[in-house]
Amino acid sequence: MALEDFYTLHSNYSTRLVLYTRDSNNDNVKATLAALDLLQNNKTEVIIGPQQSSQAAIVSEIGNTSQVPVISFSATSPTLAFMQLPYFIRTTINDAAQIKTITSLIKAYGWRKVVTIHEDTDFGWGILPFLANALEEINVHSPYCSLISKLSTDDQIKQELYKLQTMQTRVFVVHMSSSLGSKLFLMAKEVGMIGEGYVWIMTDGVTNMVYSLNESVTSAMKGALGVRPYIPKTNKLNYFTIRWKRRFHEDNPQEMSNKPSIYALWAYDTIYAVAMAAEKAGVQNIKINNPTAPPPLHASLNGPRLLEEIRNIKFQGLSGNFELINRQLQYSSFEIINIVGGRVREVGYWREEQGLSRVLDESNRTIQHQKKI
Question: 244: which residues sit within 8 A by CB, 6+ positions away?
Fold first, then answer.
């Protein structure tokens, strides 16, 4: 859809993006092989979409050797070594960007002890040092860190929850993918840890995908708070959402079409940015051999120019203002949601200049608090 929209608006452009797709099946080795195949057989100029941070790190090493930009709109770990990966670009936010919103919420309600629950992956571990330091700065104690494997059975998750029940802390920060987070909340409801007396705060790993979760999961999240990047509600986004739902239903008639996730919006904006950069760079289909690169890799003649143009692209996208600083997308505003009756309610916002507020404006009205736990 991004390509269709872009070239409808810019029919006079001399360049055209052609997409070649591969499926890594969430496997690092398959992601590496897919990247090598694209570079060798399709002479790819840009690689878009390593989904996980571990995949992005490996594929970006290949990008460095071949001088091909590698762009991810979903690899969010703050531990990705940008200095060692000069051809890596992140058109999503760093997980650490949401920490001030979470700690502001914790501080505002006066909670003094917090337990973190995270998955045992690069994504899960990446945020922890930053979150621990932020909690320490506001004098909040984290007596325990709960680690859950993506391969955990329901019984294993229950056992970990029973352990948490024996502790005095009743405030939990959950940093997981939506699939594992769904299992956690279903089990938490089953063991009686949802509702009065418990506070659940979800990072955007779950919150970004909340509209795609089934009703049994959102019902199990009763009362949970979630943090996610704020996406401006524009006519452009509304129109796109209508078209997206129609297209989704045509392609998947047996499935219910929800709203496009923020990752879909970032993917759309990423394609737009690359298409703009290709035209500005005057990309031509030329490759040169790199004698220092192991076969079958070659160095892209267009890569350095493309990288520079992508880094400098600025526009108003579906996800908001698209601007890269230090090769990462920047967000200054976050949204706080509350799950009530299986439905999502937007209850507040956070912005660097004004902190927590009911609305995103200059009135700086702070959130009024209810009973403290």
Answer: 1, 257, 260, 264
Radius of gyration of the chain (CA): 22
Burial class (CB in 10 A: 0-12, 13-18, 19+), 245: middle
Alpha-carbon distance of 206 to 369, in angstroms, equals: 24
User: Could you tell me the pTM of the whole model?
Assistant: 0.89
One digit per residue, pLDDT tens: the chain, 373 residues? 999 999 999 999 999 999 999 999 889 999 999 999 999 998 899 999 898 899 999 999 999 999 999 999 999 999 888 889 999 999 999 999 999 999 999 999 999 999 999 999 888 999 999 999 999 999 999 999 999 999 999 999 999 999 999 998 999 999 999 999 999 999 999 999 998 899 999 999 999 999 889 899 999 999 999 999 999 999 999 999 999 999 999 998 888 778 899 999 999 999 999 999 999 998 765 443 344 445 556 688 899 999 999 999 999 999 999 999 999 998 889 999 999 988 899 999 999 888 999 887 644 444 444 433 3
Between CA 16 and CA 81 the distance in angstroms is 32
Backbone angles phi, psi at 161, to 5 degrees: -70, -40
**266 token code pair:** 């970032």
Output the six-digit token pair for 119: 């998955």
**Please, what are the domains in the chain?**
2-92+263-318 (3.40.50.2300), 99-231+334-357 (3.40.50.2300)
Of 196, 102, 83, 180, which Cα lies nearest the Cα of 140? 102
Kind plus residue range of the DSSP H or E element containing 355: strand 355-357
3-state SS, one letter per residue, for 274-341: HHHHHHHHCCCCCEECCCCCCCCCCEECCHHHHHHHHHHCEEEECCEEEEEECCEECCCEEEEEEEEC
- How many CB atoms sit inside 10 A of residue 142's CB? 17
